[in-house]
């Protein structure tokens, strides 16, 4: 089997697995339906296309930067009738970074890699209002099991987030960063799931969207090695002009 990793980073992300009336929530990590929808869009598949090959892919995600949950209110007005729709409540993850991966047959994974390199439709992180802020691809496909690829991938947290953790570590005397990263991955055949989600897409047809259940196992991996001094600012040379760095640069 072949695995492909995607970096999901942006100012806002929203990964809903359930929507009830005017309340649109988000999970704490990307859903399988959201990421497979991104891949289908990159290939230019219509919403009525067969998704069975994508749904059969093994899916996993690693939480590199959890982000902050925020709430927004939206209202809409019908373009033709002018009727005002009910105010909706929408939730997002702000400043989050995830590493998502899919595993499957080499030919399909290679095709998805090419599609993400030149997507037919612009990718978004759960909703069209949430564009990615960094390249999605984290390199070519690898002939390594998905769990091992997620375990070995470099930590993708933003530099401002690492600086923030470093400052907190100086204050508290703790390690500069988390000791481990959370992983959520599809169960292998015969495994007992830790939780279940109805987010495996059967059809994206807007007239009758369908999703199936999947079992998910949770795991933790040691934080991939990183150099905490990489986030320190260079010393100002004597007589040199002061340097400024945005606290929110990636």
Strand content: 25-35%
List unreliable stretches of 5+ residues: none
Distance separating the two termini: 33 Å
Judged by helices, strands and strand pairing, the structural class is alpha+beta
Major sheet summary line:
9 strands, mixed
Anisotropy-based shape: globular
| Range of helix content | 10-25%
Total strand count, please?
9
How would you spell out the order of helices and strands? EEEHHEEEHHHEEE
| Total count of helical runs of at least 4 residues | 5
Question: Overall pLDDT, averaged?
Answer: 88
How would you describe this structure to a colleague?
This protein is α+β, with helices and mostly antiparallel strands and 250 residues long. Helix content is 20%, strand content 31%. It has five helices and nine strands; from the N terminus they run βββααβββαααβββ. Strands 1, 2, 3, 4, 5, 6, 7, 8 and 9 form a nine-stranded mixed sheet that branches. It is globular and about 65 Å long. The relative contact order is 0.22. The mean pLDDT is 88.
Give the structure's gist in a few sentences.
The chain is of the alpha+beta class.
Q: What attributes does this structure have?
A:
250 residues; 5 helices
